[in-house]
Structures are given as C-alpha cells and as structure tokens.
Amino acid sequence: MNSLRGQNAIVTGGAVRLGRAMALELARAGVNVCIHYGHSSSEAEATLAELKQFRVQALAVQADFTSPVSAARQVMQHALQHLGPVDILVNSAAIFEPATVLETTEDQWDRHFDINLKAPFFLSQQFAAQVEQAGASIVNIIDWRGSVPVPGHPAYTLAKAALAAQVKLLAQEFGPKIRVNGIAPGAILPAPGTSPEAFAQRALFNPLQQVGGPADIVRTLMFLLQSPFVTGEIVHISGGEQLAAGTRY
User: 3-state SS of 72-108?
Assistant: First the structure.
C-alpha cells in the first residue's frame, strides 16, 4: 500500500467520535492533520494534544457549518496557511436529530442539509481548487440509511442519500486527480443519550449479530486512502444491516 507519510489532511468533526478516531489514525501514519470542530473546543484541544504525540503537525479550526460556504472557505484557508496544500479531505462532521416526517421542521431540515450535505460539497469544491497533482482523496462519511432509506429521521436520511450521490458525481468530475469514496457506517457508536444496553440491541438488526467500533471505520478509511484504483465506491461497514432493513417494517 502507498505510504501517506508527510501528506496533509483535513478531518471535519475531528475532535470527537469517529472524526477523532480517524484523525488519530492518520497522525499515526505520519499525516499532518487539521481538525475542524463546531462547538467541541475542549475536546479539540485534547485531541490536538494526542495528535502531536505522533510528531506530526496538528492544528484545529472552528467553523459553523450552518453557514456552509463561508465555513468551507475558512477551514480550507486555515489548513493551507498552516500546512500547505491538502492531500486528504475527510468529511465526517454531521448532526443526527430525531423526528418523523410529520414532526420535521424547516429549521431541522435546513440544519441537516447545511451541515451534512452542503458543507461537504463546498469543502470538496475548495479542496479540488487547490489540488495540483494526481493522488488526492476525499472520503465522505455517510450512513447505510443513505443507500436504503427506512422510516424516521427524514432530514438526516435524505441529506445522507444526497451525500452518497455526491460521492459518485464528484468521483467522475474530479478524476483523475482526485479519488472520491464514501464509508457508510451502521452500529458503530451509540447516538448521544443512548444507553450501552440499547446500543447493544442494534446487533439484532444485522446478519452478523454484533455491533462494530471505530476501529472498523478507521481500517476502511486507510484502505480507501491507499487504494489508487478505487473511486466512486461506498463501503458499508454495518454488519450487513442495510440488507436486513426491510424486514423490520
């Protein structure tokens, strides 16, 4: 596999949860990392301290993705100023707010589409504009619901479905310089406020009868970044939950 050492990466939502796990793995591989965060300032400082233990350049930038165009420009300019040209973009930042179709408000709709779809799009646009040589990569963190919509969470699900389509569109527009792929997690981490017991019950909904963990996503990220003949793919890391989704309804 190709070495990533010395490359520069942006990881949105990189202070917490899956974003943090991916940022740390990139640093472990010798990649300089700029993490974006929205409100998790203390978590960002803690993650930065961990990243620097790998003796790479590490920095954090705060940006509000409910203003996706200006935020994308802010994140990219910060990374370019402190790291130089960026080779890797991981769009991980997202929100997940519960609501049915009848309960969804326009404000909820706009927040999900701004943060989960528009910000990755305009950051990808900024990223592509500064790429000069072939070998760059974008990885979007999606959700298995983006491929197989199920009832509930309509604003989230539809934004993620559009993000999955974005992977396939950008892979065609940005080739051959930039490869664009996606990861569609299933039961990897409990949603905020979910008990460990309730999360463990998610194992009942997939063929492997188990839940995963951040390490499963990290391995997939590194595979995609080091696979020069893979683009336009969405890899489901879900225990096959998307295959059995229809049996629940």
Answer: HHHHHHHHHHHCCCCCEEEECCCCCCCCCCCCCCHHH
What SS3 class is residue 129?
Answer: helix
Task: Measure the CA–CA gap between 247 and 241, rounded to whole angstroms.
Answer: 10
Cα 246 vs. chain centroid, distance in angstroms?
A: 25
Alpha carbons 164 and 153: distance in angstroms, whole number: 16
Residue 246 has pLDDT above 90, yes or no: no
Q: What is the pTM of this model?
A: 0.96
Class of domain 8-237: alpha beta
Instruction: Round the CA-based radius of gyration of the chain to a whole number and report it.
Output: 17
**The pair of three-digit structure tokens given for residue 232, joined into one six-digit string:** 């336009």
Closest C-alpha among 8, 15, 21, 85 to residue 213: 21
- What element of type H or E holds 245? none
